[in-house]
UniProtKB/TrEMBL annotation:
One of its GO terms (cellular component) is plasma membrane. This is PTS system IIB component, Fru family /PTS system IIC component, Fru family. It comes from Granulicatella balaenopterae. Its main location: membrane. Residues 6-104 form the PTS EIIB type-2 domain. The chain crosses the membrane at residues 138-166, 186-204, 234-253, 265-287, 348-369, 381-402, 408-428, 449-469. Residues 134-479 form the PTS EIIC type-2 domain. Keywords: Cell membrane, Kinase, Membrane, Phosphoprotein, Phosphotransferase system, Sugar transport, Transferase, Transmembrane, Transmembrane helix, Transport. GO terms for molecular function: carbohydrate:proton symporter activity; kinase activity; protein-N(PI)-phosphohistidine-fructose phosphotransferase system transporter activity; protein-phosphocysteine-sugar phosphotransferase activity. Signal peptide: none annotated. CDD domains: PTS_IIB_fructose. PROSITE patterns: PTS_EIIB_TYPE_2, PTS_EIIC_TYPE_2. It is a multi-pass membrane protein. GO terms for biological process: phosphoenolpyruvate-dependent sugar phosphotransferase system.
Length: 483
């Protein structure tokens, strides 16, 4: 096998765990094989270690490990290059064999870049994988909205903590507002704008820059209760519907042939104007009130469900969150719970705050308690799984699940479901994403005692199940070998 110069991009829906785990794994594996590699990470903090035109030009191969779609202008950089594209989760699973047959896996990105810099476009040929699915577009919107709700939630939490410790809370009607009031209202802007930003980035993921402004404005309009005269806004449902609709509408408009001299004017003036006009009228008179009514009805239904019927739902949500540790099942449950924050419903997101911490912590603790049941690599990563899993993401549990899928996934799913019900029973509420076990100290999760109690029960149960199921599996394998 030759020694190659490789460049790569990694991203994931949240831009936190997979993005950097896969980048580090790629770097370590490539260097151990003698390759030269540079990995651009597109995480929650933005683009880091960005690939330069010179890096791309000199690369023998490009690896795109993606959890959400990248834009046309991003893909333009790799026109004519040999590219391997895969899901970011798949890259983590296959890291040991990823570089074994680069030539066999690679597909040439083909096409021509238009002369107009206002509309960079590459037509990709011979692609085996989809350029962008609806799910990847939705995850692009979620990823963009996370910093708004995280930053806003932390500011609101700090303001509330200040008031609890005796700080003044005075609004503008009483004269000069107090610092706590100012801080809280700045924080609430994060919650206010996370919906328009989500819709805008969904549309941007589909059709690039011309779709961004129309989607932002229309999603803002759909959530302005005063302007629409409704009880609630369209919420995340509106962001999804308008983001997708505007994205694909603009994509269609971009296919209309216009002269090269008119192309910049068409893309950045005519398309936004026409889109805002059409969707603005539709939203104000029809879709805005309709979606707001649906959201109001859904919230009333959710709040009116008898508690005995909420428990099975909590078990299902908890099991889904723990099942594939950041995968599509996890993201479906997470998205449902997260979407309720903007409407002031925090108990379902409280389940997320507890359950997503459990699989990595439990895997690490079980390894420390019974090291003989785990491989040397698992033993070495146990402490890291506990630390990273308790503060950032569920994904550090993935290597343990890949090494022994049935016992670990079964243990995670059962413990996650039971813990989801316990969290709901104890009234755990989470206002915004934060720093895992430290969220109660930041005022993002309450009550703190209920959170830590649910977490302790969930971890203990998960550890017990992992060890028990592994021993059963080992005993069964030994019995088969003897027979």
């Amino acid at each position: 096998m030759g020694k190659y110069n490789i460049v790569a991009i990694t991203n994931c829906p949240a831009g936190i765990a997979h993005t950097y785990m896969v980048a580090e794994a790629m770097e370590n594996k490539a260097k151990s094989l003698g390759h030269t590699i540079k990995v651009e990470t597109q995480g929650a903090v933005g683009v880091e270690n960005e690939l330069t035109p010179e890096d791309v030009k000199n690369a023998d191969y490009v690896i795109l490990a993606l959890g959400r779609s990248i834009t046309e202008s991003d893909r333009e950089r790799f026109n004519g290059k040999k590219v391997i594209e895969m899901k970011v989760s798949e890259a983590l699973k296959t890291i040991e064999t990823l570089f074994d047959d680069l030539e066999g896996q690679a597909v040439v990105f083909e096409g021509q870049v238009t002369n107009s810099s206002a509309d960079p476009k590459v037509k990709l040929g011979k692609q085996k994988s989809k350029k962008g699915s609806i799910t990847s577009h939705l995850m692009s919107g979620v990823s963009a909205s996370l910093p708004f709700v995280i930053g806003g939630g932390l500011l609101v939490a700090i303001a509330n903590i200040m008031v609890q410790y005796g700080a003044a809370y005075v609004d503008m009607s009483a004269g000069d507002p107090s610092f706590a009031w100012v801080l809280e209202n700045i924080g609430y802007l994060g919650f206010k704008f996370m919906i328009p930003i989500m819709g805008a980035y969904i549309a941007y993921s589909i059709s690039d820059k011309p779709a961004f402004a129309p989607a932002f404005i229309i999603c803002y309009l759909a959530n302005d209760k005063n302007l629409l005269g409704t009880e609630s806004g369209a919420g995340f449902l509106g962001a999804i519907i308008f983001g997708l609709a505007i994205g694909y509408f603009v994509k269609y408009m971009k296919q209309i042939k216009v002269g090269k001299t008119l192309k910049p004017l068409y893309n950045f003036t005519i398309i936004p104007f026409v889109t805002m006009f059409i969707f603005g009228i539709i939203t104000y008179y029809f879709m805005g009130p309709l979606l707001a009514g649906l959201m109001t009805g859904a919230l009333n239904f959710l709040n009116s469900i008898p508690i005995e019927y909420k428990y099975p739902a909590a078990i299902l949500v908890g099991a889904m969150l723990a099942f594939d540790m950041g995968g599509p099942v996890n993201k479906t449950a997470w998205f449902f719970c997260f979407s309720l924050i903007e409407q002031g419903v925090y108990d379902w997101y409280g389940i997320v705050g507890v359950v997503t911490l459990i699989p990595p912590i439990a895997a690490g603790v079980a390894t420390l308690l019974q090291p003989k049941l785990f491989s040397k690599m698992e033993q070495e990563s146990a402490l890291s799984a506990i630390i990273v899993g308790s503060t950032v993401a569920t994904e550090p549990a993935i290597p343990f699940a890949l090494a022994d899928p049935v016992p670990v996934i079964a243990a995670n799913t059962i413990a996650g479901g039971i813990t989801g019900m316990i969290a709901l029973m104890l009234g755990v509420q989470r206002m915004a994403p934060g720093l895992g076990v430290f969220d109660p100290l930041l005022g993002l999760i309450k009550p703190a005692g209920s959170f830590y109690l649910a977490l302790a029960i969930g971890v203990a149960l998960n550890v017990f199940l992992i060890i028990t199921f592994k021993k059963i599996r080992i005993a069964r394998d030994a019995k088969k070998a003897n027979n």
